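User: Structure with magnesium ion, tokens only please.
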Amino acid sequence: MGVITQRPKGTNDIVPSQVYKWHTVEKLAAETAEQYGFREIRVPTFEDTGLFIRSVGETTDVVQKEMYSVTATGDAQFTLRPEGTAGVMRAMLENGIVNEGFPQKVYYILSCFRHEKPQAGRLREFHQFGVEMVGSADPRADAEVISLAKSLIDRVGLRNIQLNINSIGCPNCRADYHRALKEYFSARREELCDTCKDRLEKNPMRILDCKSPVCQSIAAGAPVIIDYLCDDCNEHFKGLQDNLSVMGIDFEINPKIVRGLDYYTRTVFEFITTDIGAQGTVCGGGRYDGLIEELGGQKTPSLGFGMGLERLILTMEKQGCDFMEPKTCDLYIASMGQAASQRAMAMAMELRDEGYFVEYDLIGRGIKPQMKYADKIGSKFVLVLGDNELETGKAKLKNMASGEQTDVTLDRSFIDDFSNALMSEMFSGLEEEMAGLLGKEQGKNG
Ligand code: ATP
Ligand code: MG
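Assistant:
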């Protein structure tokens, strides 16, 4: 048997040189959510399989084709979460959060698992930033949730992302619509895929998001729900549009959006980009007023969205957006000889206590390879210690960017000297940046 050196198909490693991109979006996502009054919730990676069947829906692609289910010893059936909402709602119910003051607002960043055909922007393990709001049926809540997603999209620097909205009504308007769909699809029943033949009886709306090309082409001509909305749903949808306009958020009404999960009612929305190929839906969400009741709670309106972080980062990369620079080493202490190496160790401890990022030789290499390493890791400064430096109590601090060397004393005053050197280095970096920006401005004006 060979050595196992390949990750499972459809999964990703996030290596240290790339992780700053994730830190950027995770930090901005958390900050944005908190600004809107959402607090973080963390839930298990797996749940009872029944939870997903009940909430996501028996006839959905996710439940019928994409779940990773495991049987533990005994008969319990568990499933790795294919999405965040079901588990989060379960947790809000179980912990009594849905009985506290309304609205309740939570956010999460978590991994999801779906057994799909891997391709660009479609993985088997992917990550979502999501939010849930519980307790408001008002279209102001829908606009608020959409605006939160939009705010994050703006903050990470994305452009050319379209917001599409639709309303898929309530159980009242669905009855007529289901009838119309059944009639439409029955006429072409024989052409539908086997899954959809079954869906025709159980849940004809699910045919609308079947991935099979034939079903898709048939679905393209199907009646749209928006023509079947009851007065209340129409008014709600109109309210959402008014609120979005007040907030200055552009949108398009797309009557084809139905979303792939059963629990949606009324508002559904997607943020879509054309910059990353066919899997361009970066964020999808909407309202699910029946979900909590379906899970055994009191009927409580709720809504939210899930944003695919792989797709978000992919779009940011395509568009050349800025990410937060990873921290780099402030000081590398190069040393030669046993005594100097011990001194380097003690100094590093002291400087780290003061909050600095410090490294020193851990291999026992000569000064030259140590300098090379310091350069490679992008250390801002290097301090060289040898017997001579220990004896005189003086050493050279080298600024790696400018090559400039300053004399420093190896006592408590070193921390102040070093802190000053670091400050002036940061300042000169800023000056250069400003000069660059000014240059650009002048170029534009001139
Ligand atoms: P799609 O139509 O692209 O399959 P979906 O409707 O199944 O998406 P949701 O269940 O609404 O997706 O999940 C919310 C978001 O999570 C999506 O908009 C997308 O950004 C992301 N997402 C969903 N499935 C995957 C996947 N397999 N790989 C990567 N990201 C995904
Ligand atoms: Mg899908």
